# Entry
Amino acid sequence: MNFTSDNITGASEKVLAAIIASNRGKATPYGKDEATLRAHAALDAFFGRKVTAFLLTTGTAANALACAAICPPWGTLLTHQESHVMEDECGAPEFFMAGAKITGLPGIGGKISPHTLRAYLEGDAQGANRPPVRGLSLSNGTEFGQVYTPGEVADLCALAHAHGVKVHMDGARFSNALVSLGCSPAALTWQAGVDVLSLGGTKNGCLMAEAVIFFDDALAQDFIFRRKRGGQTLSKARLIGAQFEAFLDQDHWRDLASHANAMAKRLADGLTSIPGLRLGWPCVMNEVFLILPAEGIDKLRAHGALFYEWSGHSLAPDHALQPGEAIIRLVTSFETRAEEVEALLTAARGMNAR
Ligand SMILES: Cc1ncc(COP(=O)(O)O)c(C=O)c1O
# Structure
């Protein structure tokens, strides 16, 4: 019953087979191999247009380097105040942006509203002493398992662009967001105005494969140097290329994410049918945020359940934690089995027993 994260898994069978196959024989290094070239073609097909893609190994590197491509050292990058970029990357975005300031904006469920963004951009004093806002980084899905719709992304991008601000999307769970929304990759990114995307593979069936996707080619100009400088230009790049090829082939990503999302839905439905339990935010992808009496945490752990306690700062006011309540995050993956979900539900039902 391990619901700590979706990166506790290995690779899917299909991705692993592709890695093993790519291990055979010789291949040109540094991304000029056949598997990487095929992965690039598959990424073009995935987005329905030619994109400029760079493959790398971690989401942190993808985010940090992508943010550096849109925000200069003297600029400000706006993001949600509890985003991964803001809180969980050990200053990598600041490091690669070489001094740029990151400012966190509030928002329910990890989402920045157009109202909040407009108020910040219009109220931002100009002048040579202030780092001007040059970048906006949005997570889709968010750190609280929520999704921005294509329309919401388009509204934020339009506002950002009107103020000379480029938009990055952290898509560590992009597959799960797509499945949740039922829209195309194009609709959620370039058609809505996103300039650069961190496309995650690792949490959804790859062993370690992420991509930075540029929809604005001008921004990609120096990225080949940024990636190398970031230590993310792999000589045996074929191993990442092979992962993306398998991940995208016949919508394998969709099958994996659909399963993860369905398991979360099952978990959420079961948990909310238990008196005294409620969700912090709606379950729309592969994460369930459960509000429970704080003593329930130890009881669930005593049954062998693994999970993290989570922050309740981004709860809507009418969902705020009451005294004695806590919030936990339960994440499902492409490998989560229905029996694990049932075991957690049984443990949760037993929590109320004295
Ligand atoms: C929203 C989000 N972005 C980015 C990442 C990147 O993670 P990593 O650098 O561990 O691959 C994660 C991983 O937890 C994440 O949850």
